[in-house]
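Example 3.2
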Amino acid sequence: MNRMRLPLLARGLAAIAVTVTIGLSPPVLAGADEVVMYKDPNCGCCGKWAEHMRVAGFTVKEVATERMDLVKEDAGVPQALGSCHTAKVGGYVVEGHVPATDVRRMLTEKPAIRGLSAPGMPLGSPGMEGPYATERYDVVSFDDAGGSAVFARH
């Protein structure tokens, strides 16, 4: 075999092995106190929410992606409940600026829901603090059947 083709063949086989390994890897699952947060790489408030969660005792892994639409679709987030970032924790989905106290309550009570959302980006919610007046907002639970209900009021 030609000496030039052997390194190319070896690199090709290595690339295939890496692709197969990644394809067979289990999906990222977050434990009870481990949060995996998907965010747009250009969003600053998402990092502030992650810090809020860390201060509350959670471990947060931030994953930057420009395909948040696919993340939300895969997570089962209803379009009407969307926000800027999507997180997974303890088998649940957390959409947007949900306070850590609500996440902790969900993990403790273990309701039969898909997850929680703070729809939009409510001013004054964790990660959205600033020099402006705080908005009143609801954290909404949602399920796989399309149902939703108020989980908490802030």
